[in-house]
Amino acid sequence: MRLLPPPGPARVLTLGTLVKTVGRGLWLVASALFLTRSVGLSATQVGIGLTISALVGVLASTPSGYLADRVGPRGVQVGALFAAGTLTIGLVAVRSFPTFLLVGAATALADAVERGARGALIAGAIPADQRVRTRAYLRATTNVGISVGAVLGGFAIAADTRTGYVALILAAAVASLAAAVVFVRLPSIAPVAAPAHGPRLVALRDRPFLAFTLVDGLMSMHFSLLTIALPLWIAGHTRAPIWMISALTLVNTVLVVLLQVRAAGAAATLPGAARAARRAGVAIALACVLFAASGALPPAGAMGLLGLGSVAHVTGELWHSAAGWGISFGLAPADAQGQYQGAYGMGYELGKMLAPVVVTTLALGWGVPGWLVLGGLFLLLGALVPPVVRWAGRTRPLSEPTEQVPALSLDRRTGGSIWQAGSRADGAGTPTGGIGAPRGRATTRP
What we know:
By secondary structure, this protein is mainly α. About 70% of the residues lie in helices and about 0% in strands. It has helices spanning about 10-40, 45-70, 75-90, 95-125, 130-160, 160-185, 205-220, 225-235, 245-265, 270-295, 300-330, 335-365, 370-395; strands at about 420-425, 430. The chain has a two-stranded antiparallel sheet. The longest helix has about 35 residues, at about 300-330. About 55% of the residues are buried.
């Protein structure tokens, strides 16, 4: 596997993402300690603030993507990163719960704008058949960046001083600003004119796409298995040594970095992406069964099942991520990529909000039966994706059916190519122009 994509926009996106996520890792590893030990907030206040910030992200996702479509995604993304960097510096001035809420909500808004613009930028700057692969590179890079940031942040955490925490915050802010400078090298994507008639936020009226977003968002709760449920399960319900928590996290990170790009090939078509989502549900359900069984075994057996469960989980994680990218790009219209990618992100944010309560209540509150319920839930959610995608295909405008075209070379709404008209096997397609007209082309090259 190539460590970097070929020279061009994909490589610029990858390098900018690396810079940005190193800063994110710095903040993630220090945020809770800074807010409680330096600012003086309670754990409950921090939790409430993070929940409100997540809600802001959910509500702003689709409008933010719409803004990127109308104004042009590169400028919106660069502006959002500058805003996020400036707001991160503002954390130094936080001294009370109200100011934490204000800065946190504003930062969540900037992050939502950046996410929506990133989806539209990928759609406009990357050839259609390379978008899912590019997203895979970005996800692998994100894992590397956050890991590097977390390791670097550990030195400041060890000092446990306000000076150290402030230094981390300023470094995270600089990373955001530096990423914005890197992304300036991306091609400028011409904005897409708003439709002359009909609703502006069409993604919120696309019921099949919203159904997929909901199913995919609920399925994304599996990310919290590794970060929330499994560490507490290992520490309190198994005989495995506590260092297994770090070992399994390391295994997950390494496998994502090494295999995510390869796994993206499973989502090269809309049907393939739907099948990948179904397989993801099976793999994650298997992981839940193995995690549940680990609680009844001696140390060696528990470690073995936890290791197998983690491999099953990361396999499902790789398929689930690739499937989500393929379907979200494959169903979105060319003139509304930003808002559709924003709506897709809204599902993930919803899952992130629900996951802590759901996974802790079931896996830790109910024990083995709860793990099995979780496994059944993920199995069901994965199985729902193919029929939802077929439903979405039936609601797209019809044209003469031809041979199946890969999802990544489809017009985002109608099945026609971004560069020329076309159609899918289910008959969805449209001639060039109208609702199938291409989104803005890159007007400059880095």
